[in-house]
């Protein structure tokens, strides 16, 4: 957890903003352009009054000058409640000696919380592991990032837990970032993400992959799934090629499906600095 | 230590080597390492055969190899090493009446026999006298006719028993090789000996076929005179033929030496007589309507002639140093039966001295060559002789018991190992 505690991560993402991917509607003042016609002094355009429009929005001065009944449209900046959902299952505790996957996932999560918090967006975090879900509701107050850091530091990845229910339970977030290796309930997770997208939420998927998973050692060992110990496969020189091909095909298919669902998909490989990953995620 | 079936031992050694190789090329499960993406590896059997230069499960290997070797050794039937001699002789000595001088046989045996050789003596029967000793027993003389067939049968039996005691066998026949010693089975039995036979010929007995003339005490016109050839000599000899009632002097004469008193009464009454069609003595058979007096039967003794119905017609008994032969065969005074060669032969036979041996005639060269067989050497490999008995290996039961124990040990070790594997954390 060296990246989390060193402060280098927060330094590397200082000044980084996480703009909304599209115009959103929101009741709270924030940094993101809202689709709502609000009281913002920034004029956008006039639109002829239509039945159903709020009469209070009619620009009476314009009516006095031109006798046209029109309403004034202007941009309204809204805040974006952001929830970062982190997978803390046993598959994230890999490699066993360095836990590089978990460290990258936790660092990216902390970075996203910090960026959102820096944009004055309420930011929260939910860590889903074998012991259940530990969450921090979206907040804008000080110490949110520190609280998120402490929550991450207190978490030890392990066990097997379904992410989809936790993702579906996100009701108070307009922007949801999911950080996982997607080796669990990938299909159910995708369905939950589709529902979130359909409800107007922005969904980000950060796929964490370990370098050792991309290029495993082929020393004739038997590899086993940490979440399914009964699943054992031989991995030697004769099978590692097929393994790489199958894994690559699965990653490509996964990215295509999530992107098709309207999710911003980002592949994060251990070894890449977490700050750089965060920048890639938040880049518009 | 030698093995009766060493092929089993070789096979067991090969199998044990295979077991060792299998322990080197063992099926084992390689080390398991966690990999979250293990599902993308091809689904193949986890257990892999790997070669290693380090033996695994040494105790189990020892049990298995020991089991195989012990079972193989038991099947190979080990026997303690025996002192096999390069050559064993089977010397067959003639002890029959065909041999003229028993000392000649003894001298031959002294020259031939070595320690460990087998000595067989035969006359009408044969028996193993000595084996494995250097004691040379003196051959007793036998008055019976020898049988080469019987001698060869015992020699073959002895050869089989010597099969495992010597590398080569040699059969030596010391005999006079008379015609009378050979019969129709001799050639067939000789064919069972896989090699040549060394023949050592000793002198046969003197020819006793020269006709002897008995002293005839009877009437001058007695028709029996004409049946005897050559004509009876009134002079005193070894045989006295009395046609009248014998006297005490006759009896004393017979008991006084190796003499034969032939009592062949001439007076035959017709009262109570019956007729019988034939009489035989030795090889002589005379067929004629003999008028036999049923009341006159010879006494108890060795039967020298029999009627056709089996009743004795002539018997002889020992009497002192000689013998008395009583003949109750009527000699017809009419007809020419006495001139019949068969009757003459019968008469000559019945007037021979007691215990007269048949004439000696040596085997001709053709029969001797057939008996000796072909081949430059009379030595034959001992293994050429058929196995007479199944040799029992004293170690085989113990080796089988050891194999059984090792098998049980191997089973227990495997069970213990399986339990340990089941209890080990995955």
**Biggest chain pair contact, residues each?**
A-B, 35 and 21 residues
Radius of gyration of chain B, taken over Cα atoms and rounded to an integer in Å:
40 Å
Instruction: Count every helix of chain B, treating DSSP H or I runs of 4 or more residues as helices.
Output: 10
Number of strands of chain B: 19
Average pLDDT over all residues of chain A: 85
**Strand-and-helix sequence of chain A, N→C?**
HHEEHEEEHEEHHEHEHEEHEH
User: Which fold name is given in CATH as the topology of the largest domain in chain B?
Assistant: Rossmann fold
Uncertain runs of chain A are none
Strand content of chain A: 25-35%
- Report how far the terminal alpha carbons of chain A are from each other: 28 Å
What is the CATH C-level name of the largest domain in chain A?
A: Alpha Beta
Number of domains of chain B: 3
Helix content of chain B: 25-40%
Apparent shape of chain A: elongated
Total count of domains of chain A? 2
Q: Structural class of the secondary elements of chain B?
A: alpha/beta
For this structure, the CATH topology of the largest domain in chain A is Rossmann fold
CATH superfamily caption of the largest domain in chain A: von Willebrand factor, type A domain
| Low-pLDDT residue spans of chain B | none
């Amino acid at each position: 957890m060296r990246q989390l505690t060193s402060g280098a991560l927060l330094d590397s993402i200082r000044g980084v903003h996480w703009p909304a991917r599209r115009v959103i509607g929101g009741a709270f003042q924030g940094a993101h352009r809202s689709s709502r016609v609000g009281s913002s002094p920034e004029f956008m355009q006039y639109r002829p009054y239509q039945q159903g429009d709020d009469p209070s929005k009619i620009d009476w001065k314009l009516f006095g000058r031109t006798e046209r009944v029109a309403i004034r449209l202007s941009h309204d900046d809204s805040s974006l409640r952001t929830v970062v959902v982190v997978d803390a299952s046993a598959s994230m505790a890999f490699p066993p000696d360095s836990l590089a996957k978990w460290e990258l996932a936790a660092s990216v999560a902390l970075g996203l919380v910090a960026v959102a918090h820096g944009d004055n967006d309420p930011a929260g975090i939910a860590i889903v592991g074998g012991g259940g879900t530990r969450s921090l509701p979206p907040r804008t107050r000080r110490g949110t990032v520190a609280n998120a850091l402490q929550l991450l530091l207190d978490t030890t990845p392990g066990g097997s837990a379904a992410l989809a229910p936790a993702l579906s339970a996100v009701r108070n977030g307009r922007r949801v970032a999911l950080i996982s290796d997607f080796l669990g309930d990938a299909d159910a997770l995708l369905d939950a993400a589709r529902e979130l997208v359909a409800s107007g939420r922005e969904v980000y998927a950060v796929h964490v992959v370990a370098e050792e998973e991309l290029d495993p050692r082929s020393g004739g060992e038997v590899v086993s799934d940490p979440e399914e110990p009964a699943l054992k496969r031989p991995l030697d020189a004769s099978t590692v090629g097929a393994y790489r091909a199958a894994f690559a095909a699965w990653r490509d298919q996964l990215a295509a499906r999530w992107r098709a669902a309207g999710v911003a998909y980002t592949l994060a490989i251990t070894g890449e600095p977490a700050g750089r990953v965060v920048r890639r995620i938040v880049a518009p | 230590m030698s093995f009766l079936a060493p092929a089993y031992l070789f096979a067991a050694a090969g199998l044990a080597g295979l077991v060792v190789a299998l322990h080197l090329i063992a099926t084992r499960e390689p080390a398991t390492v966690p990999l979250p993406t293990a599902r993308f590896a091809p689904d193949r059997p986890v257990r892999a055969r790997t070669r290693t230069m380090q033996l695994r499960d040494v105790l189990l290997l020892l049990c298995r190899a020991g089991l195989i070797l012990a079972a193989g050794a038991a099947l190979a039937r080990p026997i303690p090493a025996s002192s096999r001699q390069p050559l064993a002789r089977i010397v067959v000595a003639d002890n029959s009446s065909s041999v003229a001088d028993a000392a000649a046989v003894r001298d031959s045996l002294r020259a031939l026999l070595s320690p460990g050789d087998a000595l067989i003596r035969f006359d009408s029967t044969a028996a193993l006298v000595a084996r494995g000793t250097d004691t040379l027993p003196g051959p007793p003389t036998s008055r019976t006719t020898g049988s080469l067939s019987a001698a060869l049968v015992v020699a073959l039996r002895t050869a089989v028993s010597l099969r495992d005691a010597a590398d080569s066998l040699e059969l030596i026949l010391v005999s006079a090789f008379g015609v009378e010693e050979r019969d129709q089975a001799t050639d067939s039995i000789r064919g069972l000996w896989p090699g040549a036979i060394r023949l050592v010929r000793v002198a046969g007995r003197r020819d006793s076929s020269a006709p002897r003339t008995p002293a005839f005490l009877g009437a001058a016109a007695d028709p029996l005179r004409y049946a005897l050839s050559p004509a009876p000599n009134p002079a005193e000899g070894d045989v006295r033929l009395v046609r009248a009632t014998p006297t005490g002097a006759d009896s004393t004469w017979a008991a006084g030496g190796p003499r034969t008193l032939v009592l062949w009464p001439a007076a035959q009454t017709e009262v109570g007589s019956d007729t019988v069609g034939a009489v035989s003595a030795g090889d002589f058979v005379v067929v004629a309507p003999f008028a036999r007096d049923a009341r006159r039967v010879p006494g108890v003794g060795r039967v020298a002639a029999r009627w056709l119905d089996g009743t004795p017609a002539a018997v002889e008994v020992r009497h002192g140093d000689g013998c008395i032969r009583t003949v109750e065969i009527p000699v017809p005074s009419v007809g020419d039966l006495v001139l019949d060669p068969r009757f003459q032969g019968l008469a000559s036979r019945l007037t021979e001295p007691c215990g007269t041996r048949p004439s000696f005639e040596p085997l001709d060269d053709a029969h001797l060559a057939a008996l000796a067989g072909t081949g430059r050497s009379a030595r034959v490999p001992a293994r050429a002789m058929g196995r007479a008995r199944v040799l029992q290996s004293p170690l085989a039961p113990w080796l089988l018991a050891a194999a059984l124990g090792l098998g049980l040990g191997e089973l227990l070790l495997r069970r213990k190992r399986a339990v340990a594997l089941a209890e080990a954390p995955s």
